[in-house]
Specification:
This protein is of the alpha+beta class. It is about 40% helix and about 20% strand. This is Extracellular solute-binding protein.
């Protein structure tokens, strides 16, 4: 992909921008079914691309707003939105890749750290040409990758979340999760690899040696009151005091706090665990599709759209020039000190071991709760 060919494609877009035909945003920006998600060129010569967006809350706002603005200035491009969770949507992407490798379910989109790693291993995603994207240089270097497979747009984080009515002294360390003062008061969502990791890290291990973490949680399983299966259940048990302490996403926690839940998010003294959200291009596409995707991703990486993503997803913007939304600026989770103090996580290790770790959690820890 050369700059010349990309400019030629975009010159065509600019040339057709004078057209008066309007786009039906209810179709172009709404959810689409897997059957209609595959890329195609319409009879009018438009290049149709499908963007994967997270399903739930306000996570679809920024992608839809971006699509509307982008199509208004690029009349030869139609953007559709496929909204789904990564866990469900990625399974469908794999099935489509097996059935028709040259007609991917989606063309590009938003993917969490774990799906990004899995997708790289599955050869689901293709390399991005950072040099051809002017905004890539402004992305925090921790979320620009040596292999070029994806690039960060925002960073959520894992820290401590607690009920301030039930726990009057703020927990300041990851070790509070296994402090006997909170025995039987801890909840987790399904398998919390990060709790095992931090137990290992604080006891001489790490991602490459999780044994100290496994031994600790096997011994301290009674700290855990229950494992929840949905966000509504999670919010309920935290808010009513059934299990007033957990480790969870700062973004989700803040959304709950904003609705009036009696919760507080704390950045542990050892540092929060960053969870980048990456923009990825899917393999198996034409040159023209990939050129358009590069331009689209570059625009989404701009300070304006990174800041909008941060605001709607409640995340730290990955673009270092993006202005932090006013609604987040005063929160400890979004301070520069928090970002500078993030734990350094190799998600390649997490992704490759996640299935095995989950089985061990069920056998060694969950069975003892």
């Amino acid at each position: 992909m050369t700059d010349i060919s990309r400019r030629r494609f975009l010159d065509i877009a600019a040339g057709t921008a004078a057209g008066t035909a309007s786009l039906a945003l209810a179709t172009a920006c709404g959810s689409v079914s897997p059957q209609s998600a595959a890329p195609s060129a319409s009879k009018g010569g438009k290049l149709t691309l499908t963007m994967f967006a997270f399903l739930g809350g306000d996570l679809g706002k920024m992608p839809k707003e971006f699509a509307e603005e982008y199509m208004a200035s690029h009349k030869n491009v139609e953007l559709k939105i496929y909204e789904q969770s990564n866990s469900v949507g990625y399974t469908k992407m794999l099935a489509q890749k097996k059935a028709a490798p040259d007609r991917p379910l989606v063309n590009f989109g938003f993917f969490n750290a774990q799906t990004s790693v899995q997708g790289a291993d599955d050869k689901m995603f293709t390399k991005l040409d950072y040099a051809a994207m002017s905004n890539a240089a402004d992305i925090d270097e921790r979320f620009r990758y040596d292999d070029g497979i994806g690039i960060g747009i925002g960073i959520d984080q894992l820290g401590l979340l607690y009920n301030k009515q039930e726990i009057t002294q703020a927990p300041g360390s990851w070790a509070e999760l296994w402090n006997h003062a909170h025995q039987g008061k801890v909840a987790f969502f399904s398998f919390p690899w990060y709790a095992v990791y931090m137990a290992a890290k604080l006891n001489g291990g790490g991602l490459d040696n999780m044994e100290p973490g496994w031994e600790l949680w096997k011994r301290e399983a009674k700290q855990i009151r229950l494992l929840v299966e949905s966000n509504p259940q999670y919010l309920n048990v935290l808010s009513n005091g059934t299990a007033p302490l957990t480790a969870y996403f700062a973004g989700t926690g803040q959304q709950w706090i904003n609705t009036g839940a009696p919760l507080t998010y704390v950045v542990p003294k050892e540092g929060a665990i960053p969870l980048p959200v990456n923009l990825q291009a899917v393999a198996g596409q034409s040159q023209s599709q990939l050129e358009a995707i590069h331009d689209i991703i570059n625009e989404m990486l701009s300070p304006k759209w990174c800041a909008r993503w941060a605001e709607t997803s409640v995340e730290v913007p990955a673009n270092t020039k993006a202005e932090l939304p006013e609604s987040l600026a005063g929160l400890p989770a979004f301070s520069k000190a928090t970002s500078d103090g993030f734990q350094q996580i190799d998600y390649g290790i997490v992704g490759r071991n996640n299935a095995e770790w989950q089985k061990r959690w069920e056998t060694d820890v969950a069975s003892r709760i």
